[in-house]
Write a structure and sequence with these properties.
Number of strands: 12
CATH superfamily of the largest domain: Type I PLP-dependent aspartate aminotransferase-like (Major domain)
Bound molecules: pyridoxal-5'-phosphate
Number of domains: 2
Structural class: alpha/beta
Order of helices and strands: HHHEHEHEHEHEHEEHHHEHEHEEHEH
Length: about 400
């Protein structure tokens, strides 16, 4: 399987067939597994053989999902979680000790930001942020206790792009563990391990599922680091359910075709908005006007499903636009087959001050669209009438 193309791996990686010779892999909805005899059980618990014991540790459906993502990301091993945040928390908690320090991009998922600010201080784990566009300041933030460099690209909801190759070089030079949350790009568009990432995290809830059905998370990367994450997680219990793993593994079979269409639609929407009189600016990585367009082209296959733009007229105009939307969903999710609009300043990021919002690339009139798989003419028509 390793010398086949991405789409083929996504479809043809599957568990061995049972005696029923099923074509599509069945669900292993079981909490535990049985042993042949006392010796089998002893050897299994002693980890002398690799086999399923209990679904908190491993389950065939999770293993299939993990194997696919490892092949897609070029990773050695992985562990699957009940949500993206379970993956973020468990990965960081498994690797960090009291007194350690993390350097992170400021433009990260809101709950990850809360983790750094509201919970890690309890365990004496500190952090420093760098702003997107100020990557040259990262080295100045390094302390003797810095252990991890953490980032997301493209960022949410500002759709900034960070240079993965540059982050990889800094991490290597200072022996930091580079962790990339690759959820916005999906493994189809971007594989951070190629650029030096040690671990890659995904919320499977977004493009991987792609239909807004299940929560899931996954961490993949080097065997050595994943083993630490696994040891922590098999004890603390954030494992993905077999049902959700089964759904996710099926979803990955169509990831490439779905993401191709998401990107095609998103680029068309971005181009439409760029010429619109009621729009101040549009940010999409594959628009030539994007400040990091060249970096995006170097590390991404296409621009992703998220387009950000600013409606002229600030907060009031942003909310008015939002209220005028007819077909698109008003929701906080993204990477769904249904297009979704959010107005971060009055919703997801309303608790931040104007300055804090500016640091993550959000102005009062910023609108984020997760472009779905409806016909592009209908998506544009809804946005056009709402702008009017
Ligand atoms: C949604 C998201 C998460 C968290 O994932 P959940 O599955 O909602 O827990 C983490 N990082 C990014 C970039 C996300 O978009």
């Amino acid at each position: 399987m390793s010398n086949t193309k991405f789409e083929t791996k996504a479809i043809r990686t599957q568990l061995n067939r049972s005696e029923n010779l099923e074509h599509s892999v069945p669900m292993y909805v079981t909490s535990s597994f049985v042993f042949e005899d006392a010796e089998d059980m002893r050897a299994s618990f002693a980890e002398e053989k690799e086999r399923n014991i209990y679904s908190r540790y491993s389950n065939p459906n999770s293993s299939e999902f993990i194997e696919k993502v490892c092949l897609m990301e070029g990773a050695e091993d992985g562990f699957a979680f009940a949500s993206g945040m379970a993956a973020v928390f468990s990965t960081l908690a498994a690797l960090l000790n009291s007194g350690d320090h993390v350097i992170s991009s400021r433009s990260i998922f809101g709950s990850t930001h809360s983790l750094f600010n509201n919970f890690f201080p309890k365990w004496n784990i500190g952090h420093s942020y760098f702003k997107c566009g100020e990557e040259d300041k990262i080295e100045g933030l390094i302390t003797p206790n810095t252990k991890i460099l953490y980032a997301e690209t493209p960022t949410n909801p500002g759709v900034d792009v960070l240079d993965l190759e540059y982050l990889g070089k800094i991490a290597k030079k200072h022996q930091l563990i580079l962790i990339i949350d690759n959820c916005f790009a999906s493994p189809y568009l971007q594989q951070p391990i190629k650029f030096g990432a040690d671990l890659v995290i995904h919320s499977g809830t977004k493009l991987m599922d792609g239909q807004g059905r299940v929560l899931a998370g996954i961490t993949v990367g080097s065997k050595e680091l994943v083993d630490k994450v696994y040891r922590f997680s098999r004890i603390t219990g954030p494992a993905l359910s077999p049902f959700n793993a089964w759904v996710l593994s099926k979803s990955l079979e169509t990831l490439a075709v779905r993401v191709d269409r998401h990107c095609e639609n998103a680029l068309k929407l971005a181009e439409f908005l760029e010429g619109h009189e009621k729009v101040n600016w549009v940010r999409y990585p594959f628009l030539k006007s994007h400040p990091k367009h060249e970096v995006a082209k170097k590390q991404m296959k296409a621009g992703g499903c998220v387009v950000a733009f600013e409606v002229k007229g600030g907060l009031e105009a942003g909310q008015k636009f939002f209220n005028s939307i007819k077909m698109l969903s008003l929701s906080a999710n993204l990477g769904d087959s249904r297009s979704i609009v959010t107005h971060p300043a009055s919703t997801t990021h309303s608790k931040l001050s104007v300055e804090e919002r500016a640091e993550t690339g959000i102005t009062d009139g910023t609108v984020r669209v997760s472009v779905g798989l409806e016909h592009i003419d209908d998506i544009i028509a809804d946005i056009q009438q709402a702008l009017g």
